[in-house]
Amino acid sequence: MRRSLAFLLVGGLLGGAAVYVLGPRIGGRSGDRRQEESPGTTPTKAVPADTPADFEPAGGGRGVIALVLDDLGNGEPAIVRAGQLPGPIALAVLPDAPASGSAAALARRKGWDLLVHLPLRAESGASRPDAISSADTEQEIVEAIGRAIERLPGAIGVNNHQGSAAMADRRVVRTLLQTVRDRHLFFLDSRTTPARIAEEEARSLGAPLLVRDVFLDADGEAGMAAAWERARKLALRKGSAIVIAHPHTETLDFLARELPRLETQGLRLVKISELVD
Ligand SMILES: [Zn+2]
Q1: What is the reported pLDDT for 170?
Q2: Which of 22, 67, 181, 250 is found 20 to 30 A from 274 (Cα to Cα)?
Q3: C-beta separation of 244 from 68 below 8 A
Q4: Distance of CA 163 from the midpoint of ligand 1 (Å)
């Protein structure tokens, strides 16, 4: 990963293009986790007219998908199954989970990207006890992020676990993006709230930001197929799509079947760090 996204974001015109191109297009549906991690359908945003004519999507004109497997570290079976998938896949690991070390080791062994899956406070329902919230001071937020990063050596980015409340709080988001930037990592907004604060703040801070496009949730074959098709179409249309999935058995089964088909569909998997450029 190069740090040039920060430069692009600071750089005005190209920064706008980067954010728009990597911006969210598709939300999820309601439901337990989905309710937290999918804020609902968001309007499709057209690529702005001032996009440079010679802007080339990642992958040399071929559509690419960056797949992130969230919530890893709670148990070994999901880690074993993740390791059997064709990669590259980014592994987003809960820093304080019992098997987080094993998940991080898998990422290192495979040469895959490792993300710190940072717990942030949700609007409703149970948040993890260590979730960062609006009640925390800036110093507490900085320290909590530092502890999380230090538990996962080799992590190249951070994304939010839940966080529909905290990610709608401008002070929290600003502190978060500043801290991640200062650690020379990038932030992937999982988009658990319709608020676009992270995009606004990343722009003004010059902080490297990626934004989730599609959640691939365990909502049955038809639901997963529809979400996957949205991701594929998006990748073909704009060059790349960022997909977040959770390590449920049915989702892992689905991915084991679909990932090997990407090549023949004119698509390929890339490391998410390749999109930070
Ligand atoms: Zn999560």
Answers
A1: 97
A2: 250
A3: yes
A4: 9
State the chain's maximal CA–CA distance in angstroms.
50
Sequence-ordered alpha helix ranges (H) in 100-219? 100-110, 138-151, 170-182, 197-205
Average pLDDT over residues 95-122: 97
Task: Measure the N-to-C terminal CA separation of the chain; round to a whole number of Å.
Answer: 7
Q: Using alpha carbons, list the distances in angstroms from residue 256 to 82, 105, 150, 243.
A: 9, 21, 31, 15
125 alpha carbon to ligand 1 midpoint, in Å?
Answer: 14
Cα 54 to ligand 1 centroid, rounded to whole Å: 36
The yes-or-no verdict on residue 15 having pLDDT over 90 is no
Cα dist from 105 to 99, 113, 158, whole Å: 10, 11, 17
Nearest Cα neighbor of 212 from 195, 196, 232, 188 is 188
Mean of all residue pLDDT scores within the chain = 83
pTM of the model: 0.80
Domains (ranges, CATH) in the chain? 4-39+64-275 (3.20.20.370)
Q: Say how far apart CA 245 and CA 262 lie, in whole Å.
A: 16
**Ligand 1 center from residue 70 Cα (angstroms):** 5
Say yes or no to pLDDT of 67 above 90.
yes
Mean pLDDT of all residues in 63-81: 97
Q: From ligand 1's centre to the CA of 207, what distance in Å?
A: 22
Tokens for 192, please give them.
């658990």
Confidence of residue 52 (pLDDT cuts 50, 70, 90): very low
CA atoms within 13 A on the CB side of 124: 7
Cα–Cα distance, 256 to 164 (Å, whole number): 30
Q: Which of 160, 149, 154 lies closest to 39, judged by CA? A: 160
- Mean pLDDT for the stretch of residues 240-255: 97
Instruction: State which amino acid sits at residue 162.
Output: Q
Q: Does 42 have pLDDT greater than 90?
A: no
How far is ligand 1, taken at its centre, from the CA of residue 12, in Å?
Answer: 32
